[in-house]
Amino acid sequence: MSDIIQLLPESVANQIAAGEVVQRPASAVKELLENAIDAGANKIQLILKDAGKALIQVIDNGCGMSISDARMCFERHATSKVRKAEDLFSIRTMGFRGEAMASIAAIAQVEMKTRRYEDELGTLIELDGASITKQEPVAMPEGTNICIKNLFFNTPARRNFLKSNPAEMRHIMDEFQRISLANPSISFSLHHDGMEIFRLPSSPLKQRIVHLFGNNYNERLIPVEEDTTIINLKGFIGKPQFAKKTRGEQFFFVNNRFIKDAYLNHAVSKAYEDLLSDDNFPLYVLFIDIDPAKIDVNVHPTKTEIKYLDEKSIYAIIHSAVKRSLGRFNISPTIDFDQETAFSGMISPKSLDEIVPPSISFNPDFNPFSDEKTEKAPASSDRGFSGFRNMEGREQPSTKNWGSLYEISKEKPAEQVIMELPGNGPDDKYAPIQKQLMQLHNKYIISQIKSGLMLIDQQAAHERILYERFSVNLEDRKGASQQSLFPQTVTLSPNDYELAKSLLDDIKSLGFEVREFGKNTLVIEGIPVDLGSNQVNETQLFEHLIEGFKNSQQELKLDKRDSLARSMARNSSIKSGTVLGQEEMNMLIEKLFACKAPNFSISGKPVIQTMSLAEIDKKFDK
Fold it and tell me: Is the pLDDT of residue 410 over 50?
């Protein structure tokens, strides 16, 4: 029997390696940009076509390569930064002409021009699937110009698994943002299909953040800086009021290399714990400078995870530094023995005489246990505190005044309301009986039913109603729109703008009238007719729609239309704390029971809860 184990051909081995290094166009972009940075470039251009599938071109003004280096960089295991095993633990560079070039060349058509400063002519090399097809001298400026064409042209199965152009473009922009944030002293530009998306001049870190995410980020940033014997920490964090529902603006860099580390993320989140709820995520761009010998960057193929010798101390330093910065800028309470910053500038001694203590008025003759008819308490102008209005518009007092409320109930019968749960007959014990509805803490709607009482979560109910309505609109493409009197423009981050463009057809199906209006800007000319009666901020609604869409896709991995419907329902529903009149409560319940799944919210939680008379009696030991 002959031997069956053989060495793989070089071309096959390269394609296997390419599958590990180059998963999508963004992977190739990352490698090429990092190579340009290590070449000492201070100006880097990235040019893309068809979201990197047709062309990825990186032009830099770095040191360039000699003829032999230009050929050698496409060989497997060729590198300029590692000479011995110990070098793996003292790496400060990103990658220099050779770590991924062989893998990229194995699955694409490559053209590279490169010239050193001291050379009169540069070198042109063309490759097709790792085979060199052309090499000749060429006149060119100092630096390197590399084109990656037709990525995965010889591995069609891999190419078929690539996502849509907008999806692949978002991955590329994520890599571009990380690299440009880590290197604010370098000028970057990004062009896609002939359109300029970014032009980032050399600038301080704060300006780089503003250039990437938008001018409105200038007021959102708080500086962080801490120097210790273990690490040096610097960067910016975001003010709590600008936190978002989705991750995506959290950046950690260790020795200028972007990393993902849940442990360090928790250190930052812990500093915000009294300022933010668990489902909000603050912005931060933090840089850790540490001795390379104290970390291991080779624990993950993409080098986005790192092992530390003393991670607990690093955690404590980051947590305390972020906490102190929040306190220093009067975001959270702090103790300063030189000055009590929490009160500085708030009250001057002259104003102390002007302070008038609050007065309390009460009726000394009121007796809640008296059977005698008491005088009706004056109505408060604050409906949310004093009670609710009946159908005639008369203000009814707070339920604290039981005597007055009892007298009002004797004067006029309650408004008749009849509701039935879907699938239940009129004699069912859970069918609500003819009684007036009541709002509890402006959060729940209470109705008496034959078996006891029923509670309805008003926000969850409205979300369910809107979700089913928007789902139908998206399916039928018939969302009605109401024209805005004054169209509003909304400027998004480049990532969100690309996402919004990919969703425009479905967004219009919801009832929005939206069109492109310049760089990273859309104009909103109409909103869904269902929201026309509400005082809505079109710009905020649209921004929250995009943010909610990303959140739904991250958490539940839903399809595009379902994510949009959920996001729209959450952002346009009435919220807990909203005062509802009898008509509004009646309409809400009527529409809820017309839904396909009235008993559950779009998060899968109960909308309706019932309590039987037996359960109520038990609480009173009856």
Answer: no
Structural tokens at position 176: 């571009």
Q: What pLDDT shows up at residue 380?
A: 37
Both tokens of 336, joined, read 């300063």
473 and 607: one domain? yes
What CATH number should be reported for the domain holding residue 474?
3.30.1540.20
> Across residues 77-95, what is the average pLDDT?
58
SS3 324: helix
- DSSP characters over 489-539: EEE--HHHHHHHHHHHHHHHHHT-EEEE-STTEEEEEEEEGGGTTS---HH
- The domain tally of the chain equals 4
- Residues 265, 284: one domain? yes
Among residues 581, 297, 535, the alpha carbon closest in space to that of 439 is found at 581
Rounded mean pLDDT, 528-542: 70
R_g of the chain, CA atoms, integer Å: 32
Q: Return the DSSP state at 426.
A: T
- For the stretch 289-319, pLDDT in tens is 998 888 777 655 556 777 788 888 999 999 9
Q: Please give the average per-residue pLDDT across 59-74, as a whole number.
A: 90
DSSP state of 414: P
H or E, element range at 561:
helix 560-572
Give the containing element (helix H, strand E) for 445.
strand 444-449
Q: Tokens at residue 383, please?
A: 């409906």
DSSP symbols for 178-209:
HHHHH-TTSEEEEEETTEEEEEE-S--HHHHH
Q: Which residue has better confidence, 561 or 162?
A: 162
Q: In which residue are the tokens 């497997």 written?
A: 76
- The Cα-based distances of 446 to 58, 392, 407 in angstroms read 64, 20, 21
Flag whether pLDDT at 402 surpasses 90: no
Write out the two tokens for 525.
């000319």
Question: pLDDT > 90: what percent of the chain?
Answer: 28
Together in a domain, 243 and 110: no
Supply the range of the domain harboring residue 117.
Answer: 10-200
Residue with tokens 């803490």: 441
Give which of 494, 480, 607, 475 is closest to 531, Cα–Cα: 480
- Alpha-carbon distance 376 to 389, whole Å? 15
- Confidence band of 56 (pLDDT split at 50, 70, 90): very high
Angle at 170 between CA 169 and CA 175, to 5 degrees: 95
